[in-house]
Automatic annotation (TrEMBL):
Protein's UniProt name: Transcription termination/antitermination protein NusA
Cell compartments where the protein resides: Cytoplasm
Alphabetized UniProt keyword annotations: Cytoplasm, RNA-binding, Transcription, Transcription antitermination, Transcription regulation, Transcription termination
GO process annotations (BP): DNA-templated transcription termination; transcription antitermination
Length: 412
């Protein structure tokens, strides 16, 4: 009995991931049967025995013994005189099984067979990777950085599958080099040119949500619900949480004793400031909490236009707006309202003048620079020193001094 030795090929097939043994056996048999059909016209009278572990395969052709001269189909019948050459005891009407030699197929057919096998298994492996990761969208993956490119990172998971982390999905302060371990959430899975493309993200709100689930058991168990998350990756995030159990303080549980739970999340997000607030159906209270750490005096809502006018003391305006306007922008996203900040004037500042009133003397883009740091009136600019204004805006010292002189003349 001669075996068709495909040890080298089988060794490769055994290493393929996510392919169970029955499926692999089925692929191998199908490919071999196609080769048999191409060579003999039919595979109905052939038996194929595959041993993946030993790396070999046996093909047996079964034919009926007929009288000499009565052979009508050479593939399914064999003459008596030929049959007794295989085994002298054979008789007409019996079935003879004969091993098919690899040489019978020809060298070219064998090479084509091997290529076909590899192609089929690779195709199946790609489909399995796609299906596996399609079910894992929204899950956190831990991987190793394998290649660093200008626009993206190539990351390998525990099984060696290739994942992509685009630059646009990285936190601005992220810095990774080859061999580093990283965590990210699976954001998208698609097939391109018959290849599964798995995209990761570290900027998605879902990534922050999964980190909270990992660090806060009450969220994982469903005792605390995350109602909404908004982020400016690497800068600030706001998380609205709610508990259906009055005995549980959702904010306290998320922050942990002395910030123990949230510190790990902050480190993972490159020191992103995270505000955890209590969710409420009271819109005014929700907006007030969303603008934390600023203290709000009053709020006027216009539900039709979706705008909220927030009034606070002059020293709270910059807190409400936040660095680069992140705080007020995120509060608006969290609550769904367009928030406008106004300062409550005390007696000392009754004669204050809005910066917009100086539009004839001061260019609009300069006024916008001051507004971005919470200075929307003349006195709010004059209350800050020249050094402080230089640090907090992109304006030159000379420009700031000139503006301050214009504003001062208003009150002289």
């Amino acid at each position: 009995m001669e075996k068709i030795n495909l040890t080298e090929s089988f060794a490769e097939f055994k290493e393929f991931k996510d392919i169970d043994r029955p499926t692999l056996m089925n692929i191998l048999e199908t490919v071999f049967r196609n080769m048999i059909i191409k060579r003999y016209g039919s595979d109905e009278n052939f038996d194929i025995i595959i041993n993946i572990d030993k790396g070999d395969l046996e093909v047996w052709r079964n034919r009926e013994i007929v009288e000499d001269g009565e052979v009508e189909d050479e593939n399914s019948q064999i003459a008596y005189s030929d049959a007794i050459k295989i085994e002298p005891d054979f008789e007409v009407g019996e079935e003879v099984s004969e091993a098919v030699k690899m040489l019978d197929f020809g060298r070219r057919a064998v090479l084509a067979l091997r290529q076909n096998l590899i192609s089929k298994v690779l195709e199946l492996e790609k489909d399995n990777i796609f299906k596996n990761y399609k079910d894992r969208v929204g899950d956190i993956i831990t991987g190793e950085v394998y290649q660093v490119w200008k626009r993206e990172l190539l990351v390998l998971d525990d099984e060696g599958n290739e994942l992509l982390l685009p630059k646009t999905e990285q936190i601005p302060n992220d810095y990774f080099k080859k061999g580093d371990s990283l965590r990210a959430v699976v954001s998208a899975v698609e097939m391109r040119n018959n290849k599964p493309i798995i995209t990761l993200s570290r900027t998605s709100p879902v990534f922050l949500e999964r980190l909270f689930e990992m660090e806060v058991p009450e969220i994982f168990d469903g005792l605390i619900t995350i109602k909404n998350i908004v982020r400016e990756p690497g800068e600030r995030a706001k998380v609205a949480v709610e508990s259906y159990d009055d005995r549980i303080d959702p904010v306290g549980a998320c922050v942990g004793m002395k910030g123990s739970r949230i510190h790990g999340i902050v480190r993972e997000l490159r020191n992103e400031n995270i505000d955890v607030i209590n969710y409420t159906n009271n819109t005014q209270l929700y907006i007030s909490r969303a603008l934390s750490p600023a203290k709000i005096n009053s709020i006027k809502l216009d539900d039709e236009s979706g705008r909220a006018e927030v009034y606070l003391n002059p020293d709270q305006v910059s807190l409400a707006i936040g660095k680069g306007g992140h705080n007020i922008k995120l509060a608006g996203k969290l609550t769904g309202y367009e928030i406008d900040v106004f300062r409550d004037q005390d007696e000392e500042h009754q004669d204050d003048v809005a910066l917009d009133e100086f539009s004839d003397e001061i260019e609009g883009w300069i006024i916008d620079e001051f507004k971005a740091i919470g200075c929307d009136s003349a006195r709010s600019v004059l209350e800050l020193s020249v050094e402080d204004l230089v640090k907090r805006t992109d304006l030159e010292q000379e420009t700031i001094e000139e503006i301050r002189n214009i504003l001062k003349s208003e009150f002289e």
